[in-house]
From TrEMBL:
SMART domains: FAS1 (SM00554)
Stretch forming the signal peptide: 1-23
Higher taxonomy: Bacteria, Pseudomonadati, Bacteroidota, Chitinophagia, Chitinophagales
Top-level taxon in the UniProt lineage: Bacteria
Protein known as: FAS1 domain-containing protein
Organism for this UniProt entry: Flaviaesturariibacter amylovorans
Ranges of residues in domain FAS1: 53-185
Region described as Disordered: spans on this chain: 29-52
Pfam families: Fasciclin
């Protein structure tokens, strides 16, 4: 009797699975249209989630002091890459840091023909891994996403990158950490 009941339940379960599977045949999964590139496919940055902690891009986009950085990330088409799981450590120059560059530099970098150069500079500001300031050591060298290295130093209790940019604030994000810096890091300098 137990075997008959077991076979009957197994048969019902199998029938239900086949029926559900047949009902879904011929239907395509739906893809959100927001943030698409015209092909019906969208990247990680288009995921709508107002409950979870914001990723590094959304944190920067919410800061009035990082509008130049956000514009550069968009122009370099790095929004989706930086919206992924990470973890990332982003050294984020403020608008005032970009203002210290020679006149016309930012405008020139934002031109479509300079996208590769802009990507190189922005990727020089990103380390793969989540590195808090208390874990940074004087003389520590970090290999950045673009393949270049930055050097950490500690002076008077402050963290300085490449001897030119000081970490002025740290903001956690869902996919890493953002260190706000007062200078733009230039590869090769």
């Amino acid at each position: 009797m137990k075997k008959l009941l077991l076979f009957s339940l197994a048969g019902s379960l199998l029938f239900s699975m086949v029926a559900c599977s047949s009902a879904n045949e011929g239907t395509e999964p739906q893809v959100a249209a927001a943030g698409t590139d015209g092909a019906g496919i969208s990247g990680q940055s288009s995921v709508q989630d107002d409950e979870s902690q914001k990723d590094v891009v959304k944190v920067a986009a919410g800061s009035k002091d990082h509008s130049t950085l956000v514009a550069a990330v968009k122009a370099a088409e790095l929004v989706d890459a930086l919206s992924n799981a990470g973890p990332f450590t982003v050294f984020a120059p403020t608008n005032a840091a970009f203002d210290k560059l020679p006149a016309g530099t930012v405008d020139d970098l934002l031109k479509p023909e300079n996208k590769g150069k802009l990507q190189d500079i922005l990727q020089y500001h990103v380390y793969v891994g989540s590195l808090k300031t208390e874990l940074m050591q004087d003389g520590q060298v970090l290999n950045q996403v673009n393949g270049g290295n930055i050097t950490i130093s500690k002076k008077d209790g402050k963290v300085v990158i490449n001897g030119t940019a000081t970490v002025v604030a740290t903001v956690p994000a869902s996919n890493g950490v953002i260190h706000v810096i007062d200078g733009v890091l230039v590869p090769g300098k």
